[in-house]
Structure formats: structure tokens, C-alpha cells
Write a structure and sequence with these properties.
about 240 residues, alpha+beta, 8-stranded antiparallel β-sheet, 11 strands, about 35% helix, binds 2-acetamido-2-deoxy-beta-D-glucopyranose, membrane, Late embryogenesis abundant protein LEA-2 subgroup domain-containing protein, NDR1-like, LEA_2
């Protein structure tokens, strides 16, 4: 430092050397270099802290999973009670033709299906923690054609509990077309049996310490048969669990 200031003194006048001397501290490496080093250190610290927190969160999640051992809730169609099921052919001539067996010429254009049934579902929560279910609409289908829906509102279910949910499906003169109409009229009149399918996916979230897990899907897929003559359920089979993921 001393040698340099000396050299400058030798070369020129005073003012430039003062400027340079004044400027020097601004360009000087020491204060800024120290700042960036501490900044880098701080960065490293934050990174380590974040890594630590992430590992901690992972460990807590692991412990929770091990302690809670979350299991898939069960959601089943328990009972079906039939208030009424009516199959009305569009006109008597088409109906008699269909029933007479001379089907070649007579292709009934439509038949009407009216329905009033009550579905009773059972929700079982086998977990040590609560579950929240989303609202679900179950489809009621005839030959793959949706006739109507059975709505079940969302609800929360406490740990280790069973809950019954009742819902009603009302279908008023659903227009069943073409080949399905023919089958429907024949099934009802001759076999005394109308096959329906009830399907739906229930979305559930497991609640742990105020947090909710990702959605778990429970599939309901049931085949039922109703006797129009007796106005009652004659057959019910749920599962092979459908496509449960
Ligand atoms: C369906 O059946 C229930 C119970 O019998 C009855 O209260 C309700 O009015 C019926 N609904 C219709 C639309 O017929």
C-alpha cells in the first residue's frame, strides 16, 4: 500500500491519487469477499436444515404409517328393499306379440321401467383413525344403460365403527329402447326377473392428526335381480370386488 501510494505521488498530482485512494475501499475485496462467504455458509446452513426437515417429515410419516397401519375401508351394498318395480309395454299389441313368441315381425320399440327401491349400504372403518368419504352417486343400470342414480352424501366416520347409509332410487317410466325393451318385457313376463346392476366408486381419505391421506378408492359393483310379480329382491351378488385400486 505504501509503495503504491508512493508511486502515484511520483507520477502525477495529488487529486487523482486521492480519488484512487478513496475509490480503493469500494473495489477492495475484503469486505465483500467476507460477505459472500458468509452468504454461502448461510445457504449451506439452510440447505442442511431443509434436508433435515425433509428427513424428519419422512420419519414422522413412516412412524405414523407403522403405528396407524391404514387399511382400506369397506363399503358394501347390504340390503335392497323393493317398494315397486313396474314394466309397462308401450302398447298391448306389441306386448302380446313379444310374449307370443312370434318375435320376427314384432320388434317392440320401447318399454317403460318404473322403479322405487331403497338401498342400504354399510361402511366399515377398520382403522385406528377417522375417515372422510366424498359424496358418491351410484349408477343403477339395466343392460349397461343407466336408469338413475342413488346418491350418498359425503360424511366422516370415526375409528373402528360401522355405519349404515340408506338411499332411495326412483325411476319414473324410463324409456328402455329396442333390443333391451324386448329383453325387459320377456324377462319380466316369462322369467319374472329383472336384472339390475349397481356400481360406483367411493372416494375415502384417511385422517391422521388433522392431515388427510391421498384418496383411496373403494369400488362397489353389485348385480341384483328383482321379481316384478313378488315385488321383492331375489338375488344379490357384490364383487368379485370389481376393479378396486
Ligand atoms: C317410493 O316409496 C316410498 C316408500 O314406500 C314412498 O314413500 C315414496 O312416495 C315412493 N316414491 C314414489 C315416487 O313413488
Amino acid at each position: 500500500m505504501t509503495t503504491r501510494s508512493n508511486g502515484e505521488h511520483h507520477h502525477g498530482g495529488g487529486p487523482p491519487s486521492y480519488q484512487q485512494q478513496q475509490r480503493r475501499p469500494h473495489y477492495g475485496g475484503a469486505p465483500y469477499g467476507g460477505g459472500s462467504a458468509s452468504f454461502r455458509g448461510c445457504c449451506c446452513c439452510i440447505f442442511l436444515l431443509l434436508t433435515f426437515l425433509a428427513l424428519l417429515a419422512l420419519a414422522v410419516a413412516l412412524v405414523v404409517v407403522l403405528v396407524v397401519k391404514p387399511r382400506k375401508p369397506q363399503f358394501d351394498l347390504n340390503q335392497v328393499s323393493v317398494q315397486y318395480l313396474l314394466v309397462t309395454p308401450p302398447s298391448s299389441s306389441a306386448a302380446s306379440a313379444a310374449m307370443g313368441g312370434t318375435v320376427a315381425a314384432a320388434v317392440p320399440a320401447a318399454a317403460y321401467l318404473s322403479l322405487n327401491i331403497t338401498l342400504l349400504f354399510t361402511a366399515v372403518n377398520p382403522n385406528k383413525v377417522g375417515i372422510r368419504y366424498g359424496a358418491t352417486a351410484f349408477d343403477v343400470m339395466y343392460h349397461g344403460v343407466p336408469l338413475g342414480v342413488a346418491a350418498v352424501p359425503g360424511f366422516e366416520q370415526p375409528a373402528h365403527s360401522t355405519r349404515l347409509l340408506q338411499t332411495r332410487v326412483i325411476v319414473d317410466r324410463f324409456n328402455v329402447l329396442q333390443a333391451d325393451a324386448q329383453d325387459l318385457v320377456r324377462d319380466a313376463a316369462i322369467s319374472d326377473r329383472v336384472d339390475l346392476r349397481i356400481t360406483g366408486d367411493v372416494g375415502a381419505k384417511i385422517l391422521v392428526l388433522g392431515f388427510s391421506s391421498p384418496k383411496v378408492q373403494v369400488s362397489v359393483d353389485c348385480a341384483i335381480a328383482i321379481s316384478p310379480r313378488r315385488q321383492s329382491l331375489t338375488y344379490k351378488q357384490c364383487g368379485v370386488d370389481g376393479l378396486s385400486v
